[in-house]
Design goal:
By secondary structure, the protein is mainly alpha-helical. Helix content is about 70%, strand content about 5%.
Length: about 170
């Protein structure tokens, strides 16, 4: 007949029998930081069963059931992520990064082109107020061009998303 234990508190030997782990492995896990508080009774160390089992089995359990549980959890998380990608809720990190880099590159190029574009006009001007007006005009034009490019990019992305959604439903 199988041994029956009072399971509110367990000893190292009982944990070893229940889990199939070696006594020294169980002791190492129970006394690792922070150690689980034990009560000494009749010369035996008694550990609270729930916290002792959690510590012993934890992420490092060699029991097949614990390994299966970890694998099943990881598989479920992976499938959930894959579903979110298919539904369009998640996108790979590289996609927005490429978009931001293209936008930043276009922004930089357009702003850097301003001095070349207005150099002669500014050089011929003697009034600071007119120079400021020329510079403001060019900055406004450059920022409008950048905004238009961003709007076109957003429209293209929205069209791609609509096309993907259509294909997903069809």
């Amino acid at each position: 007949m199988a041994r029956q234990y009072e399971l509110s508190q367990v000893t190292v030997n009982q944990l070893a029998q229940l889990t199939g782990e070696r006594n020294d492995t169980i002791k190492r896990r129970l006394f690792s930081f922070p150690p689980i508080t034990a009560v000494k009774q009749n010369g035996r160390m008694l550990f609270p069963s729930r916290s002792a089992l959690d510590r012993v089995l934890g992420q490092n359990s060699t029991l097949p059931s614990a390994a299966r549980a970890r694998r099943d959890k990881a598989d479920a998380e992976l499938k959930e992520l894959e579903l979110k990608v298919r539904m369009g809720e998640l996108i790979p990190r590289s996609e927005p990064a490429r978009g931001y880099m293209a936008l930043a590159t276009g922004f930089s190029a357009r702003i850097q082109a301003i001095p070349i574009k207005i150099a002669r006009e500014i050089a011929a001007e003697t009034k600071p107020a007119v120079c400021e007006q020329i510079l403001r005009r060019e900055l406004h034009e450059a920022l409008s061009d950048i905004t238009d490019a961003a709007d076109r990019a957003m429209a293209e992305l929205e069209a791609e998303e609509a096309e993907k959604a259509e294909k997903g439903q069809g």
